[in-house]
């Protein structure tokens, strides 16, 4: 049975689109998803389902959230292979967690590969020492200071690329892979 990671865009951020992870887990299990496991409050869910079409899985979860909470939440679905590729393509760091303190490495999952014009818009308006690189539909960030000091937010990236985006720090991204791989053990 396929094992997937769902990344939810824009839930539990600044008091908006509040979803308790325990309630989400129970809701998904009541609707046929198996072995649902959540990680932190920003919408990271590992689960199993018989459905093999990732777009259909994303749509079904999006519909479920809309019916239950009234939120129109964008859902990104990845399997282990997708996440390994995203991690291995990071040009700024290896598979080593960052130490405690402000995080500098982030992975921005995009709804599709951005256009050259979209990437140019991010470059044009990014007025800091923060750097980024895009590989396929993933943008990698290396921040000079911290996320709080960076212009490279999901909203900024969405506005410039005209795509949907959700961002995870490097440690969370590594933890998601660990959770996916634990299902094989």
TrEMBL record:
<dbReference type="Pfam" id="PF08002">
    <property type="entry name" value="DUF1697"/>
</dbReference>
<protein>
    <submittedName>
        <fullName>DUF1697 domain-containing protein</fullName>
    </submittedName>
</protein>
<dbReference type="InterPro" id="IPR012545">
    <property type="entry name" value="DUF1697"/>
</dbReference>
